[in-house]
Specification:
Length: about 200
């Protein structure tokens, strides 16, 4: 079973040394099926704070966190006009959780393109990727291995890079990123939260 879809490859031993930035940007553009006007945005989105030679993804991740929440809020508001805000909030939360976004990063192999200077990240990501492979895609609220936050951060920062690059057009952003985020957790596939089941 391939955990990263068509973009699957072995995890790198180090994503920092000798990384061809242009090749990484092109690969992520292919995953997104989107060409950046300002490729520097994507370069920053793919730079972990441990890689000090370039600005990191932290500012973009901040925007990406907010814009993903808004994009999913819009989507579910329109998709479920008769559903109350509590259920809409659960749907949004399930889709933008660290666990779910980390699985998106693994599924599409985004981590392979991140520049960083810490081998510990590779070990955590590899452990999580193997757990996802064993558990499958059905786990929503956390599996055997805790999702590394860096994986969710990557998705958020890449989403923000697209958002800024498309001049803050939320509707266009959704067209670009929706495929990346599939399968979307819907009302029909939303499992009960562990706390709700008590």
């Amino acid at each position: 079973m391939s955990i990263a879809g068509d973009h699957d490859a072995e995890m790198p031993e180090s994503s920092a040394a000798g990384t061809d930035v242009d090749a990484c940007i092109s690969a992520v553009e292919e995953i997104l099926n989107y060409k950046f006007t300002n490729r520097k945005l994507l370069e920053d989105a793919l730079t972990h704070p441990s890689y000090t030679e370039s600005p990191s993804y932290q500012r973009l991740e901040f925007v990406g966190d907010a814009v993903l929440g808004l994009a999913f809020a819009n989507f579910f508001y329109l998709a479920y006009p008769m559903v109350d805000q509590g259920i809409l909030s659960l749907l949004r939360s399930a889709n933008i959780s660290t666990e779910n976004l980390a699985r998106v990063a693994v599924r599409h192999g985004l981590y392979r393109y991140v520049r960083h200077n810490t081998a510990a990240l590779d070990l955590k990501v590899q452990e999580f990727a193997l757990a996802v492979q064993e558990e499958g895609e059905t786990t929503v609220y956390g599996g055997a291995v805790k999702a590394p936050k860096v994986l969710a951060d990557i998705v958020e920062s890449v989403v923000a890079a697209v958002y800024v690059d498309c001049e803050f057009d939320l509707k266009y952003l959704w067209q670009v990123i929706r495929g990346l985020l599939e399968p979307i957790i819907t009302l029909e596939s939303l499992p009960l939260q562990p706390v709700t089941m008590l």
